[in-house]
Amino acid sequence: MVKYASKLSRESIIDIEGIVSKPDMAIAGASQQVDVQVRKLYCISRAAVLPIEIENAARSEKPNEDGQNTRLNNRVLDLRTAANLGIFRIQSQVGTIFRQFLLSEGFVEIHTPKLIAGSSEGGASVFKLDYVKGQPACLAQSPQLHKQMSICADFGRVFEVGSVFRAENSDTHRHLCEFTGLDIEMEIEWSYCEVMDIVNSLFVNMFDYLNKNCEKELEAVRRQYPFEPLKYLPETLRLTFAEGVQMLKDAGVEVDPMGDLDTKKERKLGQIVLEKYGTEFYILHRYPLAVRPFYTMPCDDNPEYSNSFDVFIRGEEIISGAQRIHVPELLVERASARGIEVETISTYIDSFRYGAPPHGGFGVGLERVVMLFCGLNNIHKTSLFPRDPDRLAP
Ligand code: ATP
Ligand code: AMO
């Protein structure tokens, strides 16, 4: 039996029969919990020679020791490490908390189509494909249009957890070509602040829950990828875009007050906010209208700004949200101004013609939330089977 066992390859699955006892601590290491005197041994599933060493995958990335690409090529084995299993258990909790919290707040879960006639967000990052009978179609870049249409259908409050497709053309540490979108849309009574209130209670609740209930998983991730716990406040900090621009200017950074912030400036602002307010989770709102999607509602008091917001963890965006335009004429005007072919979204625009309530919502990238909560440096680590410009398998 010993000879047979010594020939078994690593990661083979075996059944054994034997006598279990407490180990002699003087002989066994402190980590050994049990001793088994094996009487019978059966091989249930024999593993072939491993293409990567799981011990290497379980260490921090070291050059020449099964780098990230090799590990992703062999993702099933790579996922067997404690850190990776921890990451996806945490991810599962994030999705569960998102669902449970919204259901308790009266939101209805919906499932919108992923095959649509035109682009849902505009821009170039659209996967185009041939639909049946030769019709052109796109993969949805977000459930944006249909979640708003569900509000026009009188659901009041809706949410969706689903795949989102973006034909991103370059590799970055935080972009995927397919990711999981956590989306909400809701009627609003007074202002888009009601949507930011949901962001606040949902995420403070989520972070509290993860810290309290995922200790083991967080520890497994931390052992391989050391990180500091996320600093956040019981009431999420809200700054206006103009305040953010001023803080950057005061720190000597050149900023266009009516432009968007690039990744570097977002990170810098994150550092300034942490030093000044002691939080790594905050909301930046009232963005210039010109840098937001066509469906974003301009501010009443100054149409150069918009009722919109982004939310950041450790200086990187995890959420975009806004009040939407519910007036069809204004929607047509804003879509045309952005070069969108209005015919491709005519059914969306028509749904605002028969009495549409003021409404707003937001979209969250699930992989980004987990990446940034765990202080990880790359979104591939939080996507089970990542899709990027160079990766369609496994
Ligand atoms: P979203 O798509 O929701 O806006 P985002 O994080 O991609 O999320 P953007 O406003 O598109 O935010 O981009 C912010 C910055 O991120 C850009 O100024 C640019 O520096 C960088 N960036 C965005 N997309 C890419 C990309 N595909 N490749 C490289 N850099 C990108
Ligand atoms: P936006 O385009 O900002 O907004 O996307 C929402 C959130 O999705 C995540 N995200 C991504 N994650 C991984 N890879 C990508 N390529 C990628 N692109 C975006 C980010 C981002 O904050 N319809 C609006 C949302 C709304 O207003 O309701 C939208 O899609 O975390």
TrEMBL record:
<keyword id="KW-0030">Aminoacyl-tRNA synthetase</keyword>
<comment type="similarity">
    <text>Belongs to the class-II aminoacyl-tRNA synthetase family. Type 2 subfamily.</text>
</comment>
<dbReference type="GO" id="GO:0017101">
    <property type="term" value="C:aminoacyl-tRNA synthetase multienzyme complex"/>
</dbReference>
<keyword id="KW-0963">Cytoplasm</keyword>
<dbReference type="InterPro" id="IPR004364">
    <property type="entry name" value="Aa-tRNA-synt_II"/>
</dbReference>
<dbReference type="InterPro" id="IPR006195">
    <property type="entry name" value="aa-tRNA-synth_II"/>
</dbReference>
<dbReference type="GO" id="GO:0003723">
    <property type="term" value="F:RNA binding"/>
</dbReference>
<keyword id="KW-0547">Nucleotide-binding</keyword>
<dbReference type="Pfam" id="PF00152">
    <property type="entry name" value="tRNA-synt_2"/>
</dbReference>
<keyword id="KW-0648">Protein biosynthesis</keyword>
<dbReference type="InterPro" id="IPR002312">
    <property type="entry name" value="Asp/Asn-tRNA-synth_IIb"/>
</dbReference>
<dbReference type="GO" id="GO:0004815">
    <property type="term" value="F:aspartate-tRNA ligase activity"/>
</dbReference>
<keyword id="KW-0067">ATP-binding</keyword>
<dbReference type="InterPro" id="IPR004523">
    <property type="entry name" value="Asp-tRNA_synthase_2"/>
</dbReference>
<feature type="domain" description="Aminoacyl-transfer RNA synthetases class-II family profile">
    <location>
        <begin position="88"/>
        <end position="386"/>
    </location>
</feature>
<keyword id="KW-0436">Ligase</keyword>
<protein>
    <recommendedName>
        <fullName>aspartate--tRNA ligase</fullName>
        <ecNumber>6.1.1.12</ecNumber>
    </recommendedName>
</protein>
<dbReference type="GO" id="GO:0005524">
    <property type="term" value="F:ATP binding"/>
</dbReference>
<dbReference type="GO" id="GO:0005829">
    <property type="term" value="C:cytosol"/>
</dbReference>
<dbReference type="GO" id="GO:0006422">
    <property type="term" value="P:aspartyl-tRNA aminoacylation"/>
</dbReference>
<dbReference type="InterPro" id="IPR045864">
    <property type="entry name" value="aa-tRNA-synth_II/BPL/LPL"/>
</dbReference>
<dbReference type="InterPro" id="IPR012340">
    <property type="entry name" value="NA-bd_OB-fold"/>
</dbReference>
